[in-house]
């Protein structure tokens, strides 16, 4: 399998109309003039398979042990499912209920299971850290994290290997310092946390 380089990943995002420009409020609360809408890329199963095959290969190269892949809803659901398929393990997802991240729908993570958390985009790592808390509650072992895109500028750290398809530098702003807010440009909230 030929390694997919960052330039090709971004080319796929552009080709699928998934690199959006405007004024966006991210799940982290930060504002940005660009947004990577992974759902537009992941609507193509062959692309999800190709990307997750590479993530799985990187995890295997690092010797990561995994029994279950966990994805935070919504963005991590498809990634977790396809990555689990590539690794030959099961997949579950967490959901946010009244502001708290939980396992629902009868999903279980057993004490001592080795877990990989899979996300679409990591910006601050907040969602991943919330899932880490769920794993701790269940006595599971976090063995790695994976995402399609790392927007953290290399700052996201989870104490385990973190593999991704591409690190993308996109400038973000606190609301009080956001140039689009100062120009009264309408803000969009494209992520899974809908409060603005």
From TrEMBL:
| Residue sites binding orotate per the record | 123, 151
E.C. number: 2.4.2.10
UniProt: 5-phospho-alpha-D-ribose 1-diphosphate binding residues: 96, 119-127
What InterPro entries has UniProt attached to this entry?
A: OPRT, Orotate_PRibTrfase_bac, PRTase-like, PRTase_dom
**Known pathway:** Pyrimidine metabolism; UMP biosynthesis via de novo pathway; UMP from orotate: step 1/2
Keyword Magnesium found: yes
Q: Which GO terms describe its molecular function?
A: magnesium ion binding; orotate phosphoribosyltransferase activity
Show the catalytic activity. orotidine 5'-phosphate + diphosphate = orotate + 5-phospho-alpha-D-ribose 1-diphosphate
Instruction: Choose any GO biological process term that the UniProt entry carries and state it.
Output: 'de novo' UMP biosynthetic process
Print the keywords alphabetically. Glycosyltransferase, Magnesium, Pyrimidine biosynthesis, Transferase
Where the record annotates domain Phosphoribosyltransferase, the positions are 50-155
**SUPFAM superfamilies referenced in this protein's UniProt entry, alphabetically:** PRTase-like
Cofactor requirements of the protein:
Mg(2+)
| Entry keyword annotation includes Metal-binding | no
Known function: Catalyzes the transfer of a ribosyl phosphate group from 5-phosphoribose 1-diphosphate to orotate, leading to the formation of orotidine monophosphate (OMP).
Partners and quaternary state? Homodimer.
What the record says about family reads: Belongs to the purine/pyrimidine phosphoribosyltransferase family. PyrE subfamily.
Please state what the protein is called. Answer: Orotate phosphoribosyltransferase
User: What organism is listed for this UniProt entry?
Assistant: Elusimicrobium minutum (strain Pei191)
């Amino acid at each position: 399998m030929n390694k997919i380089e960052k330039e090709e990943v971004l080319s796929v995002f552009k080709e699928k109309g998934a690199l959006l420009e405007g004024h966006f409020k991210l799940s982290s609360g930060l504002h940005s003039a660009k947004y990577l809408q992974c759902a537009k890329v992941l609507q193509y199963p062959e692309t999800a398979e190709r990307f997750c095959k590479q993530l799985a290969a990187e995890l295997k190269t690092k010797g990561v042990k995994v029994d279950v892949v966990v994805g935070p809803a919504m963005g991590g659901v498809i990634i977790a499912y396809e990555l689990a398929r590539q690794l030959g393990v099961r997949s579950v997802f967490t959901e946010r209920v009244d502001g708290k991240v939980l396992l629902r729908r009868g999903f279980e993570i057993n004490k001592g299971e080795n877990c990989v958390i899979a996300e679409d985009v990591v910006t601050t790592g907040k969602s991943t850290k919330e899932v880490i808390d769920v794993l701790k509650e269940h006595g599971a072992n976090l063995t790695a994290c994976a995402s399609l895109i790392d927007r953290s500028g290399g700052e996201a750290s989870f104490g385990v290997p973190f593999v991704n398809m591409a690190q993308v530098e996109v400038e973000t702003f606190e609301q009080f310092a956001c140039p689009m807010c100062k120009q009264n440009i309408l803000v969009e909230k494209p992520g899974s946390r809908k409060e603005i």
